[in-house]
What we know:
By secondary structure, this protein is of the alpha+beta class. Helices cover 49% and strands 15% of the residues. The protein has a four-stranded mixed β-sheet, with helices on both faces.
Amino acid sequence: MTRKLILMLTVILSLIIASVACTPAQKPMPPEPDRRPAPITPAPQNDGSGMHQRAMKIAEEVDKLEGVKKAYVVISDSMGYIGLDLDRNLEDGKVDALKKDAETRAKSIDKSLTNVMVTSDVDTVTRIKKVAEGVRNGKPVTGFTKELEEIGRRIKPTTR
């Protein structure tokens, strides 16, 4: 009888140990996420309006050159891009002189410009005009980086 009792106690004890040891450990619940909205902080205003104002000032002065119908200017950091819409009856020598005058005026108006690229090529002037209009409409100059790189490839830069 004691033998049966010991056997029965061993079986019961084994079942208890097996049932307790095989249950998965209770893991703590992950903390509930914070459902409050994050505070909104306004982004710093680096919209290029300062560069746009500098470009407008240069364009106004270059427009005053005889033979220039309209000048379009874009400034990106220390680089200036000027597109000249010229009178049709200008000689080639006069066109080159106007480009040099536009560059000189731009650098004298804005001393922070180290490179100024001037073109009168119709396609490139149109590209500069579109970038200038985009900046005027509030788009950042950085949004036109690829376009400005392409314009730069088309025009030979002049350094100070």
